[in-house]
């Protein structure tokens, strides 16, 4: 299955928003495509306002990517639990994902701007 995962530079400038705030903007985002699933945009950690994110206790393991730790987003009025995730030590074939965050589409708005 890891052979069906492709990583390429995401064209253009990408923005992630949640709770009415811009959490990140990047022209160095990565687009990850797995089989026939919709592409997922991964933002470089340095392009995300990490002050709005808190590590959650959630850790998931994917045999094709590795172990992902999750982050919750702190907004002015609420906490959006487990809204994003990052692979600290992805499998070797997907090493480009290290220090990049992805966000769940139902919990944050990701758009090319």
From TrEMBL:
- Annotated TM spans: none
- The residue ranges of the DUF427 domain are 15-106
Top-level taxon of the source organism: Bacteria
Looking up InterPro entries in the UniProt record yields: DUF427, DUF427_sf
* Protein name per the record: DUF427 domain-containing protein
Organism taxonomic ancestry:
Bacteria, Pseudomonadati, Pseudomonadota, Alphaproteobacteria, Rhodobacterales
């Amino acid at each position: 299955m890891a052979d069906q995962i492709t990583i390429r530079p995401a064209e253009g400038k990408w923005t992630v928003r949640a709770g009415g705030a811009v959490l990140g903007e990047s022209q160095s985002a990565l687009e990850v495509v797995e089989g026939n699933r919709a592409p997922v945009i991964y933002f470089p950690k340095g392009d995300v306002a990490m002050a709005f994110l808190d590590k959650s206790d959630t850790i998931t393991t994917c045999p094709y990517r590795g172990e992902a730790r999750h982050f919750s987003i702190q907004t002015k009025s609420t906490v959006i639990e487990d809204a994003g995730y990052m692979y600290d030590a992805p499998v070797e074939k997907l090493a480009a994902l290290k220090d990049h965050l992805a966000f769940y589409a139902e919990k944050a708005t990701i758009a090319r701007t």
